[in-house]
Write a structure and sequence with these properties.
alpha+beta; Monooxy_af470; DUF4188 domain-containing protein; 24% strand; Alpha-Beta Plaits
């Protein structure tokens, strides 16, 4: 057989703890465009500095209407991803979003080469990804944080906002 296809693959053996995360932000209400446009450039600037453990970052677009954009990131390991997610400015963005989604919905799905997958969906009106076929439950208790959801509590780092602070009315926790 003769082929004109340049078929290639990759050797992932140098990355035994590779983590791939997809994140999406969807505009749910017209004023959500402002929220989306506020986060986009900030996220771009934050990854330009190549955070420790970030191997690659790609921007994605799922739809124009409703506006739904996202990113795919490849991380060396889960501790690197969690450490970055708990650092500034990401910590502040996530805390502020969890207090008020600003007319948008946010979701992420995480896949670990060593095993484990997890997801969270905040103010996402349509079920997508895992939520399109798997039972959905509140992100509370053992399902609150990423590391616990993938069964890697040894890699757990204190969340940006504790479950107690998130659900306590009037909380001013940092």
């Amino acid at each position: 057989m003769i082929t004109r296809v340049n078929r290639q693959t990759v050797d992932l053996s140098p990355y035994p703890d590779l983590v791939v995360v997809y994140l999406g932000m969807r505009v749910n209400r017209l004023f959500g465009l402002r929220t989306l446009m506020g986060y986009g450039p900030q996220i771009g600037r934050s990854v330009t500095g190549k955070p420790e453990g970030l191997l690659h970052h790609e921007s994605l677009m799922w739809s124009l209407f409703p506006m739904h954009v996202g990113i795919r990131q490849y991380w060396r390991d889960l501790p690197s991803l969690l450490s970055w997610a708990r650092s500034e400015p990401h910590r502040r963005w996530w805390r502020d979003f969890l207090r008020d989604s600003g007319g948008t919905g946010f979701w992420h799905e995480t896949y670990l080469l060593r095993g484990g997958m997890e997801a969270v969906y905040d103010d996402v009106p349509q079920r997508r990804g895992f939520a399109a076929f798997a039972p959905v439950q509140p992100a509370r208790g053992r399902m609150f944080g990423t590391a616990a959801r993938v069964g890697r509590t040894e890699d757990d780092i204190a969340p940006v906002l504790s479950e107690e602070d998130l659900y306590t009315t009037g909380s001013d926790a940092p």
